[in-house]
Amino acid sequence: MSRLITCLWFVNNDGHEAVEYYIDTFNSAPGGHQAVPGDITKSPKSSEEVSGRPEGSVMTAECELDGMSLMALNGGPFDQYQLNGATSFIIECETQEEIDFFWEKLSADPDGGQCGWCTDKFGVTWQVVPRILDELMRDPEKADAVAAAFMPMKKIDLETIRQAGK
């Protein structure tokens, strides 16, 4: 059986640290979020010359975050593999408590980002949004008011979104 795995290239060789941080963050989050550690692969001697990584160092670290498979690859400083906001992970939250928790844990710059988007200390981009937002945006009679409410926000205020969707 095959599975789909998201692989993120870490240029600063902090992929293992990132995976450990995400596991801790999701497992300590309110609302029943879960993270499960996965395999750790060490760099073999034969890869040292090409990868620049010493034998025995962490090459990949895997985990599952709320059921999504993630692999962090300590790939080294290749400019073409820089993380950027073109790829982001959406965390759907039921409560303001969850939104506040993930925003605090994952936003390296609490004043940065827009519309619930933030970038963490590893350069990974997240969207911390209420689950209800997608439903409200699909309703043509509510979408304009809801968009007008959340577009200026950095961290999402759930009550403001709910009021705009009435």
CATH evolutionary superfamily of the largest domain: 2,3-Dihydroxybiphenyl 1,2-Dioxygenase, domain 1
User: What class, by secondary structure content?
Assistant: alpha/beta
- Residue windows where pLDDT falls under 50 for at least 5 positions: none
Number of strands: 7
Share of helix among residues?
25-40%
How many structural domains?
2
CATH class of the largest domain: Alpha Beta
Sheet with the most strands?
Answer: 4 strands, mixed
Distance between the termini: 45 Å
The topology string of helices and strands comes to EHEHEEEHEEHHH
Characterization of the model:
The protein has helices at 15-28, 48-51, 96-106, 131-137, 143-150, 158-164, and strands spanning 6-10, 35-42, 58-65, 68-74, 88-93, 117-119, 125-130. It is an alpha/beta fold. The chain folds into 2 domains: 1-79, Signal recognition particle alu RNA binding heterodimer, srp9/1 (2-Layer Sandwich); 83-166, 2,3-Dihydroxybiphenyl 1,2-Dioxygenase, domain 1 (Roll). α5 (143-150) runs antiparallel to α6 (158-164). The longest helix is centred in the first third of the chain and has 14 residues, at 15-28. The model has no long low-confidence stretch (mean pLDDT 94).
Short précis:
This protein has 166 residues and is α/β, with parallel strands linked by helices.
Task: Itemize the secondary structure elements and their pairings.
Elements: E1 6-10, H1 15-28, E2 35-42, H2 48-51, E3 58-65, E4 68-74, E5 88-93, H3 96-106, E6 117-119, E7 125-130, H4 131-137, H5 143-150, H6 158-164
Parallel strand pairs: 1-4, 5-7
Antiparallel strand pairs: 2-3, 3-4, 6-7
